[in-house]
Amino acid sequence: xxxxxxxxxxxxxxxxxxxxxxxxxxxxxxxxxxxxxxxxxxxxxxxxxxxxxxxxxxxxxxxxxxxxxxxxxxxxxxxxxxxxxxxxxxxxxxxxxx
Length: 98
Fold this sequence. Notes:
Layout: E1 2-8, E2 11-20, H1 22-38, E3 42-53, H2 55-68, E4 73-76, H3 80-88, E5 96-97
Parallel strand pairs: 2-3, 3-4, 4-5
Antiparallel strand pairs: 1-2
Helix pairs in contact: 1-2
């Protein structure tokens, strides 16, 4: 799993790659959440190259949405398979997932 964080104006873009399993999400959360909490703007999770998400990643999404507000959080370029997971847990009704 890889994470690249880019600041584009008031948008903090987090580009994820690979498998987002429990162990990789622990390490990500420790560094990402403090940065998100200090950010004043929109946060976008780019998921184009993600092949797997664990419940730990869903928790990371929830923590990010709480930190910046649902209206300032988006998850983009989600595969059909992963969209099913987001829909199953109801995130599609409270988060911008495309």
